[in-house]
Amino acid sequence: MRPRRIAVIGGGPGGLYAAALLKRLGPDREITLWERNAPHDTFGFGVVLSDETLGGIEHADPVVYAALRDEFVRWDDIDIVHRGVRHTSGGHGFAALGRRRLLEILQDRCRRLGVDLRFRTKAPPLDRLRAEYDLVVAADGVRSATRTACADAFGPHIEEHRNRYIWLAADVALGAFRFEIAETRHGVMQLHGYPYSDSESTVIVEMRDEVWRASGLADLDVRESVAACAKIFGDALGGRALKSNDSSWLTFRTVVNDRWSHGNCVLIGDAAHTAHFSIGSGTKLAVEDALALAACLEEHPATDAALRAYEAERRPVVASTQRAALASLTWFEDLPRYLDQPPRQFAFNLLTRSRRVTHDNLRLRDARFTESVEKEFGCPEGTPPMFTPFRLGGLRLRNRVVVSPMDMYAAVDGVPGDFHLVHLGARALGGAGLIMTEMVCVSPEGRITPGCAGLYTDEQGAAWRRITEFVHTRAPGAAIGVQLGHSGRKGSTRLMWEGIDEPLPDPADNWPLVAASPIPYKPGSQTPAELTAARLGEIREQFVAAARRAARADFDLLELHCAHGYLLSGFLSPLTNRRADAYGGSLEARLRFPLEVFDTVREVWPGDRPMTVRISATDWAEGGTTAEDAVVLARAFAAHGAAAIDVSTGQVVADERPAYGRSYQVPYADRIRGETGVPVISVGSISSWDDVNSLVLAGRTDLCALARPHLYDPHWTLHAAAEQGYTGPGAGWPDPYRAGSRPPRTGRLDTPKPRLVLPS
Hints:
The protein has 26 helices and 29 strands. By secondary structure, it is an alpha/beta fold. Strands 5, 6, 10, 11, 12, 13, 14 and 15 form an 8-stranded mixed sheet that branches. Strands 20-21-22-25-26-27-28-29 form an 8-stranded parallel barrel, surrounded by 7 helices. It has a 6-stranded mixed sheet with strand order 8-2-1-9-17-16, with helices on both faces.
């Protein structure tokens, strides 16, 4: 049965709008809303809403939409001011109004519909509400008492971030959404500002906690602090004062809950989830929650089914927004890393920080601005960023696309065959700048599975030479690299599709494993033997012998696999290296053996051919490798001659908890590139050419390695060129394929327009 008596806790936009919608859909409902503050008490000044949210409001409640529409101030531009230079990007489309006015509109709508609004009144105890009402809607904000009272049921996870910020306002209407950077002697500060009326703007001042303290702002009262901010950003404000609304310096809290409902109680808005203000989504998400909740309660007669449907509908949307918000938040926390970028690239980087705005849609919004960024970056005219060449040591790559190493498990006794020729040859013909082999093992005992390829015999070397000759002869301009590795404790397992990481079914077929320490990969896995000093020397020589064969096989690049929990990675991670000798303990000691292998391989690898190293920049597990450690690893390998760091993550321990999402591993590469200056190869759910263009042009990576997209489409790079109308040298079609360089025509999808239309 649909709920008739509804309690709403919290009188912010989400709670008010939920109450109004539920009352409008059920005029006979008894709806009571409690808000402990006064009607006009509010946090912040202006609210930005998207066209998508406004469209939902328009369809659900035209009365509220009409009232909002009359109040909105609209603008299109974003201004980025850095080191005295302002760059403007247009075509973005914003709508904002005062938060107090928004509350007035929603309060008025609730009263007219008959909602019982009780301001300056604390809500009754939750147990009482749940017993007396059919439904309890908890819209009580980021510090939700409801969520706290039922923490065991909701499963909240709250992360406090490191930047300090304060909500302020100015009596001036900024002409655009404005980001301004101030480099003070204490550190970097930034202003986020936007108009919310014809004469007022929201202003948020943000900085790292240590900058806040060093600048003395932490020691000032609010009035003094506000005056100091107005002085720091005097140019942006035209010398005007800033005003406060009981503001205080805060740190942002990201709220995530395992569940959003408990019995007849449901969370909406900041009580359920938060998204950083830099993408302007708090009020938007709360209003959209209210819309979805009301719709689900209307569509599902049973309350429990309606609450499940509400969460199923909203959770993916919210998770996507939170990923974007976290990327934006982190960008501003790490802002000092980007200060020395060329000015237009800095602006582009800021605009695309959340990955919601990309190169392609920014080009549609403001082609002139985007073209100016490309020109500054060095893109030849008419050339997308992904097709600009890149030099990796002595190797010139025709574009920024890498076919990521992908284990094929198709070798026989370590010998690559026709499958590998077709697999790698097809992707070389498909236009990528660099094609990487799977991990090629340096010994029979170093294989992951019986189907893994090797370079420990001359027969294997000759088979690889057949493949490199094909690439160099039939796909001129494509480079091919080999990735050398040893499975370590993750070896002697079945083919991936037969049971990934599972031991071979016949115990007689399994071979003994070795590792940094005698720790099995997971329960049921074989326990490896800890490598002795003598065995370490043998394995170094196995890498050297494989590298010599790789050079004779005419590979253009050699990558040392120090990631994903294989042998060398096992030395680097504190979770897998428990040694008490010179190869264990501190990070410097754990680096010792991988660096020894790198050095001995570099000695025999031709000097004009680059070497790269793949690392796991985090173990995604407590006590494991951290992003800070990854910077140290990258510096160490670069100091020993690595031309680039291939930045992956995880797969080191079985109980990892990765934070999957679009381009989720790129921030680790970005950090390494920004803090070390070493070129990086980014991997991890980079799936579109728009992503590649965006990441390269923003300076977050130098090369992008894609795996699954190249399994789906061996000619991914050529198709990316065709879709962008690019025909230059960065994506040359093989002569036999040139006739297919335009997308084939499809059947007609439109219908003929009326030949004649008569007036009615």
